[in-house]
Amino acid sequence: MNPDSTELQPLEQMLDHEFRDASLLRLALTHPSASGNQSKPPDDNQRMEFLGDAILQAVISEALYRLHPGKDEGHLTKARAGLVNGVSLAAKAAALGLEQHLVLGRGQRTEFERGKESALEDALEALVAALYLDGGLDAARDFVSRIFADELANPDNIAVIENPKGDLQERLQGGSGDPPTYELLSTSGPAHAREFEVAVLQAGKELGRGIGGSKKEAESQAASAALAKLAE
For residues 226 and 169, what is the distance between their CA atoms, to the nearest angstrom? Predict the structure, then answer.
């Protein structure tokens, strides 16, 4: 069931933005499982996620550039990578409580749980796009700068995972444990836009799941999810 204006008010307060076009906020919260049709574009948040990703990258880049004039390109690039990776964005979305506002397809809770980190990442990026479309770049910038304030102020403290599969293998085998293995769970979507879901396991125990446009990307996302769980 789609959220009405009253249900959206707490989220608008958290975003510190009252939407002129509430349909943008609703669309940003609509998981692909709830689109309910095969229209092009579908009625879900995936197109907005595409736009939000670009806006987020630009806003984070600008903030790091302005706040840290003494940092060179390499430092700024690593700091940005640490902020906009899937694990970081999913954690921010979870901390903001976005999951409770997402619109899922009927009976799709189990499906959502399997790709939860990816869905939360997409929802956060879609929200950034919704803010941009409704209130312009200032609205998007204000939100991003607020939720990443601590990290932007202290870029040296940002954990950067450049090679999640390698980091996971090193961590697991460092304790004389079995190496991780990756299992392809499903392949979906048309030939030109395949989506792969992969699980990473150790000794038969699942550590995390990932979804991506290639098996390599899905494996990387799964490794990132496993590292995040191990760090809890």
Answer: 11
